[in-house]
Amino acid sequence: MATAKPIEQLERLGRGTVEAVSEIGFGAVLLAQSFMWFVVGKARRQPVRLSAIVREAMEIGIRAIPIVSIMSGTIGIMLAIQGIYSLRTFGAETQVTYGVAVSIVREFAPLITGILVAGRSGSALAARIGTMKINQEIDALVVMGINPVRFLVAPALLAAVVMLPAITFLADLMGLLAAGIYIAAELEMTLAAYWSQVIDLVRPIDLFHGLIKSVLFAILIVMVGIINGAGVTGGAEGVGRLTTRSVVHAISAIIITDMLFVFVTTR
Q1: CA-CA distance, 157 to 223, in Å (whole number)?
Q2: What distance in Å separates the CA atoms of residue 121 and residue 224, rounded to the nearest whole number?
Q3: How far is CA 70 from CA 65, 163, 168, 179, in A?
Q4: Is the CB of residue 142 less than 8 Å from the CB of residue 19?
Q5: What's the half-sphere exposure (Cβ side, CA atoms, 13 Å) at 188?
Q6: How far is the C-alpha of 111 from the C-alpha of 72, rounded, in Å?
Q7: What pLDDT, on a 0 to 100 scale, did the predictor assign at position 182?
């Protein structure tokens, strides 16, 4: 009896590891198949539908603009407040623009955008796929000769890859603008002088750094949502459980990927 519990724990750990590897493999296959349909879909007379891409782009990108703008502006003001407070100790508060501008463009804008889209659109995608699976709609697509990856996964993936960098760029502008308004008021400088400093300090590589990360975040959000949605069992309760799991996994994946990306690109 004393050894039963450790053995059970090892079994659960082993099953969890196998499931995790299986899900990663499933996601890799879905990603490869989605890219395949982008390339050969038209030749097979089954192109990825433009209407489906536009519909997903509206849901993932356009309708997320208000919350992304508000949150990125708030983050910008928060960074400006904290930056001025910290630098004032050394009498260097006039240098706050550099830290704020680079932090927003390289880190905070793509990160907050990815987290918001994961919580908003990634969970909705997982719930939609899970509901379709429970209702056997995915099986019906297969019976009708419609490939589910082309019909469901590829449009969402392409829309996310296009829209996430776009709204990340918007988040850059909103964060910088909000920070600039606060810095200009606090340090008694003009917005024109602030923007001149931003243009001088922020390099194109800093902007590309954030936009490239947003593409990776887009892929992660869609793949995590699809994988969790496809794994739904047990009716409505299962849909709710896997939807919550999708949000947790997507945000965790985004933060870990961000850390690894920064570590690699700053060596």
Answers
A1: 8
A2: 11
A3: 9, 18, 13, 12
A4: no
A5: 0
A6: 10
A7: 93
Q: What number of residues does the chain have? A: 267
Per-residue pLDDT tens over the stretch 20-59: 788 888 888 888 888 888 888 877 777 888 888 999 999 8
Residue partners of 245: CB distance under 8 A and separation at least 6: 228
- CA distance to 41, 87, 221, 250, per residue, from 126 (Å): 24, 44, 10, 11
Contact 160, 254 (CB under 8 A): no
61 Cα distance to chain centroid: 11
How is residue 62 annotated by DSSP?
G
Query: Tokens in use for 117?
Result: 């889209």
pTM for the model:
0.89
229-261 pLDDT per residue, tens: 888 877 778 888 888 888 999 999 999 999 999
Alpha-helix runs per DSSP H in the chain: 4-40, 50-60, 65-88, 96-103, 109-117, 123-134, 137-143, 148, 154-187, 191-201, 204-230, 235-265
